[in-house]
User: Fold this.
Amino acid sequence: MPLQNFGSILNFAEELEQLDQRFYEVALTNPACGAHAQLFTDLAVEAGKNVKTVQRLRRENVTEMILEPVRDFTRASFCEGCAEAAVLTSAEVLKAALRLEARAERYYLEAAGKIQALTEVSRALRTLGKIRKTRAAKISAAGR
Assistant:
């Protein structure tokens, strides 16, 4: 499904954040992940904050939703299924979390490039991408 405008880019960003938040919340219920409970709690909370950031961006820039068309940008390359975190080993959950963070970082950076004309929004999306890169580093450190 193509992401054809500002609104669809932010709607999909919100959807990704919510999916990732649920993944981390489920990981918290997995007994195998007990050693990483604080990490997954932090990641779930941060994903919730990111949802609010995306919603704020959409609200504050609602007049831009109609103006800027986006070309050659689709959801497909960002739709990655992850096995249910409740049944994975701790190592598998960490590996899946790294994939989610890398996917989100890539999405935010590509989306920012697609809507460069909306400087404030583009900058905010780049910031969300940097946040995801930082989160990936935390996950990597936890896996060592």
In short: The two ends are 37 Å apart (CA to CA). The chain has four helices and no strands.
